Amino acid sequence: MKRIHVKEIDETKESLLMGSKRINLNYYPICPNPELTVGVGRHSDVSTLTILLQDDIGGLYVRGNNGSWVHVPPVSGSLVINVGDALQIMSNGRYKSIEHRVIASGSKNRISVPIFVNPRPCDMIGPFSEVLAGGEKALYKQVLYSDYVKHFFRKAHDGKNTIEFAKI
Ligand SMILES: O=C(O)CCC(=O)C(=O)O
Ligand SMILES: [Fe+2]
């Protein structure tokens, strides 16, 4: 947490960073024409961090710096860690949530298990005071985390647009 000037994770910070967790079990059946369908549309997670276990099929892509899609090949025994929107907001943009999508396989079923580590629904999230202490301008306002999540689920996946909801 050095990069965001947080020296101690007290109870408040613990709640904001990891006060609630959600685990999903995703099953992507074989798709005869993967190019004609969407596995999971492009989005960034609303979490602080996502810890993702994927099987050996592949199909997860992240958005690279130049806008291209980069495949995240499964590595046996490894976990994928993705930064989510809540950490982008609380770090005032120092950490950027990653846009990603999933393309189903034409020949095999795929399973993935993401653990979303989140603030609690009742937490107000915004840039940490430690980050703004030096006079830095806040890029995001304080939002109720449950409102942020509701906003995400109210609409179709639309890349990194969800975070506009918290922008000043
Ligand atoms: O299946 C995957 O690899 C990722 C799924 C995902 O992005 C999500 O559940 O938010
Ligand atoms: Fe995701």
Automatic annotation (TrEMBL):
Domain of life from the UniProt record: Eukaryota
Keyword line: Iron, Metal-binding, Vitamin C
A Pfam family the protein falls into: 2OG-FeII_Oxy
Keyword Metal-binding tagged: yes
Keyword Hydrolase: no
A GO MF label: L-ascorbic acid binding
Residues of the Fe2OG dioxygenase domain: 12-119
PANTHER family (UniProt xref): OXOGLUTARATE/IRON-DEPENDENT DIOXYGENASE (PTHR47991)
Protein name: Fe2OG dioxygenase domain-containing protein
Organism encoding this protein: Castanea mollissima
